[in-house]
Amino acid sequence: MEIQLNGNDLGFHEIRSILNGEASVRIKDEAWTKIDGSRAVIDSHLKMGKVMYGVNTGFGKLSDTVISASDTEELQLNLIRSHACGIGEPFSKNVSRAMLLLRANALAKGYSGVRRETIQLLVDCINAGLYPIIPSQGSLGASGDLAPLSHLALVLVGEGEAIYKGHKMNGRAALKKAGLQPIRLKAKEGLALINGTQAMTALGTISYLEANDLAHFADAVASLTFESLRGIVDALFPETHAVRPHIEQAEVAASILSYLKGSLLTTKQGELRVQDAYSLRCIPQVHGAIRQVLKYAEEKLLIEINSATDNPLVFTDSGQIISGGNFHGQPIAFAMDFLGIGMAELGSMSERRVERLVNPQLNDLPAFLSPRPGLESGLMIIQYTAASLVSENKTLAHPASVDSIPSSANQEDHVSMGTTAARHAYQIIENSRRILAIEAICAAQAASIRGPEKLAPKTKKLYENIRSIVPEITSDRSLSPDIEAMSLAIKNRNIKV
């Protein structure tokens, strides 16, 4: 399969296909016309000796320093080298590849004044499976993701470090092994490569995709917990949700009911008790609100994925080159903070269900689901692990977007911290996935005690999926490998729900 980029209609399905190695990439034929036109405007203005920010001037506070025509290429290379000061653990392979893809898509819109060769090299790196090593820390999320994108750009000029066929090497060697040639940056091209929001948006996109998968898994595993605790189905009936018409709330209620159809374990109001605790009764309200968060993040990310976010922008029809602020990451910063908060609550709700599964004061199951309570601790401490992750998520969910530190001698006096927000959101998703893995282990153990034959057909299938990864706990054992195996299966979408 081949995905064609024009900067206007790249979606999540296409991104996922490319990152999974199921599709190659090329620039649409009609996009080249706009790309060539924007480059012609740059060249024309250079010939006329016009002063253009970042083309023949310095950067940031140095924007009033005019650069001679003979030094414009050196200016662009110096920009990349000086701005490549990221630190910390590198972004994952998929984030780096997504950054290449999203930068190529943004440049393909034809508002950046870059040459064909530059965009084509981004595409060639994607198709060759070559990706830059990009440190994850160091971006303020305004003036673009300058540090991360500079590390990406270094590889394109034959510097920096990259991974090719599983091996780490310098950029020039990686390009050579892939049969590619480094580019020599022309006027504006260095700035066009790094003045954008592609680090936060790439990580945000991957975060959204994983969060969306996790939200659907949460509905499934909550249904298994609901059964194991003999939950009251009346709270899921559509009448309640129709009078508070949040669409997502009703969707979750219907989803949980579909999982529970045919169960011999669920109860009716007044049969065992009149009401369930909120962690069961309010699943539609909480999970539904989290779906609303996901929809907000989806909307903002799709806009950003298909936007021109560098500066200045080149408008071919009018011949104007306009300095603006599309590189400012505030929309994505807010979306990532919101996503992190939503996913923290998904984990928090899950941990409360774990507590109800293992606490003998809250159910009629053996204490801590242990085969021999007292002699064996069973699933006592697995709840501690979940609680620890919930607590960590609360710290990570503090909004990064409310902070700003001026930079570039106060020229850039308000920044978004959007990349920090995306990094924190992704860590929250990783933590919440492990919390839900813990719930899956506990719910399956409780179902083993209740009798799997009493489960609804859909939850029984989920139970069997869990059991294929985590065997029944018949005696105390270290559960760390089980948690990690379950979490990985959820992440890789190996659990069918």
TrEMBL record:
Post-translational modification: Contains an active site 4-methylidene-imidazol-5-one (MIO), which is formed autocatalytically by cyclization and dehydration of residues Ala-Ser-Gly.
Cross-link (5-imidazolinone (Ala-Gly)): A142-G144
EC number: 4.3.1.3
Principal place of residence: cytoplasm
Stored Gene3D superfamilies: Fumarase/aspartase (Central domain) (1.20.200.10), Fumarase/aspartase (N-terminal domain) (1.10.275.10)
GO annotation, biological process: L-histidine catabolic process to glutamate and formamide; L-histidine catabolic process to glutamate and formate
Pathway entry: Amino-acid degradation; L-histidine degradation into L-glutamate; N-formimidoyl-L-glutamate from L-histidine: step 1/3
SUPFAM superfamilies with a match to the protein in the record: L-aspartase-like (SSF48557)
Domain of life of the source: Bacteria
Catalytic activity: L-histidine = trans-urocanate + NH4(+)
Residues where 2,3-didehydroalanine (Ser) is found: S143
GO MF entry, a single one: histidine ammonia-lyase activity
Protein's cellular compartments: Cytoplasm
Cellular component, GO, one term: cytoplasm
Keywords for the protein's UniProt record, in alphabetical order: Cytoplasm, Histidine metabolism, Lyase
Similarity field: Belongs to the PAL/histidase family.
Cross-referenced HAMAP family: His_ammonia_lyase (MF_00229)
PANTHER family assigned to the protein according to its UniProt record, in alphabetical order: HISTIDINE AMMONIA-LYASE
Name by which UniProt lists this protein: Histidine ammonia-lyase
Gene: hutH
